[in-house]
User: What shape does this take?
Amino acid sequence: MYFYLKYPFNTFTSFLFTLVVLSSMIFPFFYSNSKPRVSDFAFEEDFFIIIILMLGVNFLIKQFHEEKKKRNIELLMALGFSPIKIWLCKMITIWIITYSFYLIGILFLLIIPKFIFPSEILCDKNLIFYFNLFLFLTFIPFSILGLVGVLYLIFEDIRAINILIILFFPFLIFLLFIFKKFFFFYSFLIRIIFTIFFLSLSFIILKLVPKERYL
Amino acid sequence: MAKIIIKELTKKFNDKLVLKNINFEIENGIFAYIGPNGAGKTTTLRVCLKIIEPTKGEVIMYGNDEKPIKRNKIGFVLQDEEPFDNFTPLEYLKFYCEIYGIENKEKIEEILKKFSLDKEKRTKISKFSKGMKRKLCIAKAFIGDPEILFLDEPLEGIEIETRKEIKDILLEMKKDKIIFLTTHNLYEVEPLCDSFGIIMDGFFMGKWDKEVLKDKSLEDFYFEIKKQHDKNTN
Assistant: This one.
């Protein structure tokens, strides 16, 4: 966490990003003639997955790619930290900070429209919905962030990875959407499987790749 | 007495052999590991620090108690290493004290004084010159009171005054330590080292005590070895 306190600008921009992106998703409804229910759109789950991914990638670049360029990863390895330990410690801080911003964003989204659209019912969801929103929904994006972190750690040139992210994120969201539409009752299970798959893949890569790839 | 034993050390990157069956032993004192760029100096040092794994062979290190050395008794400065810009020297050394598990915070003040950094201890490192940053990195290497110290080209690209200062500190602090120093600058290292080894194209050419330089300079000696190496490889 010390890293984020020492680099407040990066943390602040991410915080701003959360508020700006979430607000911009709500603003179109201000002047909508047809007045769709805010809840119809804003609580579409996939939208939150994208938010978490976008927030997390910002920190990943700082924590993995830039640290590797500054040769701080080599420094940590010289101090006796294994690549798995380095990845895990960095990912835990990224998960914590991303989740904190995600929470702030959600609360912002829940509270602000209540003042702007008093007639809209935003919170007519049951407990499972909130449990999903605050916990289960974060599993997949956090596991994907973990995998992207591994890739940033291994590759020196991250342009190819960034292109992959741009292509892969929408594809994954689409895939999840399809699963949800056709196998709604299994969507939770599918998410867990995806999460385990991405995390296992991250650990396998970290275990198999020779240490010189991290330098 | 501390000891480093390098046994049959071989390292391959993809298909390229960068270290070719290296064998030697070092005991207390300053050991200069000399060779041209790309000879394998940094790779040897990385294997010693366990940053990378050797393809074959091993590096065994003993502390002054003749038992296998603990990790926190090994200090190092990597090639082109720079301290974290957003820290002050005090914060930087505190950070390493935490990593090495050192509770004696007076050690920080002592080290800062020794390296003449005590006046700037609360100045942001980003405002430091390259020489001062390098000095701080070397200061960091001494924080755990190491018995073995690896310094990868510590005098490279820094101003004359700081270079002299660092050399004096190394000579002063070499007692009961192995200082393993890599360099390609023969003039710098000659007055500093107690023994030296030469590596060329991944081949370890040999280890000598400084006494062999009685009637010739290190430069002359180096070129004799190089000539021999060129003859053998052609």
Summary: The first strand of chain B starts at residue 3 and ends at 13.
